[in-house]
From TrEMBL:
<keyword id="KW-1133">Transmembrane helix</keyword>
<dbReference type="InterPro" id="IPR018076">
    <property type="entry name" value="T2SS_GspF_dom"/>
</dbReference>
<feature type="transmembrane region" description="Helical">
    <location>
        <begin position="106"/>
        <end position="125"/>
    </location>
</feature>
<keyword id="KW-0812">Transmembrane</keyword>
<feature type="transmembrane region" description="Helical">
    <location>
        <begin position="275"/>
        <end position="301"/>
    </location>
</feature>
<feature type="transmembrane region" description="Helical">
    <location>
        <begin position="6"/>
        <end position="24"/>
    </location>
</feature>
<keyword id="KW-0472">Membrane</keyword>
<feature type="domain" description="Type II secretion system protein GspF">
    <location>
        <begin position="166"/>
        <end position="292"/>
    </location>
</feature>
<dbReference type="Pfam" id="PF00482">
    <property type="entry name" value="T2SSF"/>
</dbReference>
<protein>
    <submittedName>
        <fullName>Type II secretion system F family protein</fullName>
    </submittedName>
</protein>
<keyword id="KW-1003">Cell membrane</keyword>
<feature type="transmembrane region" description="Helical">
    <location>
        <begin position="131"/>
        <end position="148"/>
    </location>
</feature>
Length: 312
């Protein structure tokens, strides 16, 4: 009987110790999970959204009706085949929440709006209403194409403009002892635009378990800016070979600034002949005409005018 009691007491204390160990392990795992969730949530908060203009809100409003015409838009794919549209939307950062199907439908919505506007102007008797009635639907078809192309070009230019400062700041953080992901996460909180969007998405993918090289490849596929691609390729090479990234970033930033300065000088040199041409053929003749006009007016209406000489 005493043996049974002693065994029961030992088992009680054993299970009690095991329960405390498991509870401690559970608490640690829970805290780790909370930290991970907070990091992911913080990365999502870093995705700052620029204030939308009236035009942007209007386009988003119209795009809601585009899904109903997506099938028709995919059949009428002149200068807008779906694979090309997909690449273009990636480069533009998927503006206005457009998918490939919604973009195809948005073309038809703009055609319908052009037709309605042309009809309205025709019944109002607007000048050239017959021409506008025919041309406005065609213009409406191409408006989404040129709009997204312009967005893509502007986004890539902004990406290149902010890249040198971004690389310098990340390089300083790396030299101070921060890890690459931590330095990028800290720096992107001070940026708004394509740089912030791309690297925020990269950090989020890494934290969700996407392989680093695959995340780099996706960034290359979303952007065709040469300088940005060189940076990402250097990151891929650094992850493979263990090359120090801080020095590479600093050198690339200096090289980009040098190239930008040379491009500005080149544009200024090209602008000089144009200014000379405008001065020679527009401004100078206008000045001569003004002087000649003043002389003629003085001849007819001045104190020593021709009329006074003949009257005397």
């Amino acid at each position: 009987m005493d043996g049974v009691i002693l065994t029961s007491i030992l088992l009680f204390w054993l299970f009690l110790v095991l329960s405390f160990v498991n509870f401690y392990s559970y608490s640690k795992n829970k805290d780790t999970l909370k930290v991970h969730i907070n990091e992911v949530a913080m990365t999502q908060q870093l995705m700052k959204v620029k204030k939308k203009s009236t035009l942007d809100r209007f386009i988003i409003f119209l795009s809601r009706y585009a899904d109903d015409f997506s099938a028709l838009g995919e059949r009428i794919n002149f200068y807008s085949e779906s694979p090309d549209v997909e690449v273009l939307l990636k480069k533009a950062g998927n503006p206005y929440g457009l998918s490939v199907a919604r973009f195809q439908g948005f073309k038809i919505v703009c055609v319908i709006i052009g037709f309605i506007l042309g009809t309205f102007l025709y019944f109002l008797g607007f000048p050239f209403a017959n021409v506008l009635f025919v041309t406005l639907p065609f213009i409406g078809f191409f408006i989404p194409i040129f709009l997204v192309r312009g967005k893509a070009k502007n986004r890539q230019e902004l990406l290149r403009r902010d890249l040198p400062d971004f690389l310098d700041t990340v390089s300083i953080s790396l030299q101070a002892g921060s890890g690459l992901d931590g330095a990028i996460k800290e720096v992107i909180s001070y940026y708004i635009g394509p740089i912030q969007e791309e690297f925020s998405r990269f950090i989020q993918e890494i934290e969700l378990g996407v392989p680093r090289e695959k995340a780099y490849t996706e960034m290359l596929n979303r952007n065709d800016n040469v300088d940005f691609q060189n940076v990402i390729k250097s990151l891929i090479q650094g992850s493979r070979l263990g090359v120090p990234v801080a020095t590479t970033f600093r050198n690339q930033a200096n090289e980009m600034r040098r190239i930008s300065l040379e491009q500005v000088k080149e544009k200024a040199a090209k602008a000089s002949p144009k200014v000379t041409l405008i001065t020679s053929f527009i401004i100078a003749p206008l000045i001569m005409l003004m002087i000649l006009g003043l002389i003629i007016l003085n001849m007819f209406y001045g104190e020593d005018s021709i009329f006074k000489l003949f009257s005397n």
